[in-house]
Amino acid sequence: MPVPVPRQRAVPAAECGPAQVSAVALTDEAQRDTAALGAALTVLLVEDDPSGALVPELKDSAGRPIRVRTARNLTEAGRLLTPDVHCILLDLALPAAGCADTEDGDELAVLRQVLELAPRHAVIALTASGDAERGAEAVRVGAQDYLFRDELDSRLLSRAIRYAVERKRSDTAERRLAEGRLRAQENRRLERGLLPTPLLEGAALRFAARYRPGRSRALLGGDFYDAVRTPDGTVHAMIGDVCGHGPDEAALGVELRIAWRALTLAGLCGDELLGTLQEVLEHERSDEEIFATLCTVDIAPDGRRAGLCLAGHPAPLLIRPGATPVPRLLPFDNNGPALGLLPGARWPRTQVELGAEWSLMLYTDGLIEGRTSPGGPRLGQDGMLDMIHRQLSEGLRGEELLRAAVSEVRHLNGDELTDDVAVVLLDRVA
Length: 430
Description:
Elements: H1 28-35, E1 42-46, E2 67-71, H2 74-80, E3 87-91, H3 109-117, E4 122-127, H4 132-141, E5 145-148, H5 154-194, E6 206-212, E7 223-229, E8 235-242, H6 247-265, H7 270-284, E9 292-299, E10 305-311, E11 317-319, E12 327-329, E13 350-353, E14 358-363, H8 380-393, H9 398-413, E15 421-428
Parallel strand pairs: 1-2, 1-3, 3-4, 4-5
Antiparallel strand pairs: 6-15, 7-8, 8-9, 9-10, 10-13, 11-12, 11-14, 14-15
């Protein structure tokens, strides 16, 4: 249908008020999009009689011509809808191709098709003079604005196009911001599952923990830990790592932690506990190649000895008091396979003498797999022992020790660590 050049008409404020960009904190990507408005605008006109379409000469705010392409139907529109198109002018009288909704009284079927075809583009609906109700409905459905076909002129249409593009970008930024908040809320809920509150009431031990996921995964990580005290006075602690990264692995880590706590409080320990956890992992994992490493310790009520089980996990660090405490690794000769690798596997329990005063540090491999310099060798367990020894000689203990260890590992690596890091420290002071 032709689009004539009529007399000028102002845009009704109640129908097309200014976009509330200031009400939305734009993301960096949205800010770059807004800056892109410095480039010339391109408009796609979709109406069934482009030969008679008298679109007035359009200019942007800098006085540069706005490029106009025309399409007679949605098939042509799909071909012409390249990334450089900023706005679509859609004649609502255009028949909706292959859409039965028009027969059911849906006068906006063609608009719905365009919105599905171009969800990221601004859309201005063109309707007959006086049909404000249909135009307002088009805005409610998803168009950024509507104009009467017989009341267009260059200034009005240019202004409406610029407004529609700005409003679309503002709406997109607001949606991204809302989605980001929702993801953050979901991640915080998941993080609360990954970072539990230990149940150590009545235990003569001090507990500290540090958890830092790889930055590319924000709050999500596959590392998990926990500590509980059973009614007989035994303190049980564990730390684990699900292979892979992302929400599925993090969720599996939460499931394994909860299962460990429940089984431990039910009285299971050592090989029996790990065997049951392997069954849980095998039933809950999304892929048969997913496995998890685990380290568990059960500290006797007198605090002087402990049982140690390793399922493919690095051995804990034992620190005894002295003028210059020297950390050492607990025995790892009986390290069993990671959970989920071998059906019917066994995990021997090693008895360890701790002494009257001690500190026990459990950690995931993210602490030792970082580089000692950008592009250099990995820190490894020997490098970790030297680092902890030096930090102990500087008087660092408890939470300060863990914070310094994770911070130094990141600094040595020269950048954020690619793997998650979890560290747990149990202290017994006579």
